[in-house]
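Q: Hi! Curious about what Carboxylic ester hydrolase looks like structurally. Here's the sequence.
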Amino acid sequence: MVMDDQTQQISRAQFLIRSAAALLVSVGTVLPFNATAADAAPEANVVRVDTGALRGANNIDVISFKNIPYAAPPVGDRRWRAPAPAAAWTDVRDASQYGNDCMQNRMSWDKTTSKQPLSEDCLNLNVWAPASATPASKLPVMVWVHGGGFVSGSGTAAVMDGSALVSRGVIVVTFNYRLARFGFFAHPALSAESPDGALANYGFMDQIAALQWIKRNIKAFGGNPDNVTVFGQSAGGDSINNLMLAGPAKGLFQKAIVMSGGGRTVWKSLRDDGPSGPSAESIGQAFATSAGLAKGKDDAAALRAIPASKIQGSISLLNPEAKTYTGPILDGKIVTSSVADGFAAGKQAKVPYLVGSTSNELGFLPGIFLKPMSKPLVEKLGDDLDKIVDAYGSRDVFDVSIVSDVTFVEPARYLAASASSVQPTYLYRFSYVSEAKSKGSKGAAHATDIPYIFGNLAATGDKVSDADRQAAKVLQDYFTAFAKTGVPNVAGQAAWPAYTKKDDKLLEFSDKGAAVAAAATPAVEALTLHFSKR
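A: Let's find out. The predicted structure is below.
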């Protein structure tokens, strides 16, 4: 894992060609490499990070720097290892275009997905900064952790372009991390070669390495390394919850925003087979066998020689390949418990915490998809099933809502309640539906809040109305206020009360704007009571 905190940060104003050692300028820019100090005009889109100089792309008020390596490519012998430091370069690196996305099977129906090439060589990040920013600006930093069920997604999709959000006076960073078997995989042969415990959760290690890079380098772009807010949706939000509990991530961020991040999932044990199923190592061995490696011949070198296409397999959001893929793993170092248990024990980072969900997370899915998803959840409700169905008012409402509530809605309120006694905590519900999709809608679906927080409404391909733009403005107002100060309040808008168990209030973002509302429903309270019996 990248841990080098001794690297030198050199500002734009300090980076001059040839005479750099002798000349200093007070402006936050640098001179071109092919110019002399006497005749060159300042070049505002070149910065130096700890591995070399970068030339970004200037788009009027925003400069973007893309495809910045934050770790060495995890290829060949580096597959299934902790991220290593990125290699330095000598020339000015072109940072005007996105790099590769990590290996995955994309969903053809997703209009917002990235179109970048897929590769194991994918550990890169992207930075957007105001064109006027200098190392002295010390702007708040917002670091996006993408979702996708730990099997898909990237930091390069158009809907996550940071340009609009930067206009709010922040620096925006997005990045990739290893996914599916490349990012979350265990096998006895890999465990044997990692006595320090740096194993299994390679995707989380990548996230930590990216945050370490930001800590070392973001000042060069005008950011404040001591005012970093991580924000993420779905698996990205889940990642943030886990990072709040991870010792190696301590001190790398000062605020956290979790959007539809869940928290009740119990991950696979690294080595212990039990009543809940086989261990991650057993599942890894099952995959090795399916890939053609005989038991005893499945050493680390043989595993790393498996073609990337075979490792990827058919894993996707719709095909988890549960018999040979685990997702995140209880490794005892980064992941030591479920998020819910960790928060209940007060082990999370005590940073300002903003958490919430959408009003109709998965209710938009046809019954043909919801029924197989709900079956294992319903079975686990046991003797409480009838009481919980009654709390919903009808079996039909229960069938439509149970997956959303167990996976996203109830955990958000539970984590807010757990955190509220020890850190500033804010709970929200996003229920705004775009005018283009309002007909027949029963609420805001999973991930529909992403275009609003980034201000990239047109990236969805839908017609954008003035009401949609206003909804985006309001959401950005609150979230960037939180990133700047830790308190999500905005002049002229409804005051967002800190969450307490006693008051049990949240802020709802709807077609009427932002307003304080009750957080509890009978169904969610019944679910929390059920989980408390475990």
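A: A fun detail: The chain has two domains: 52-88+98-351, 361-534.
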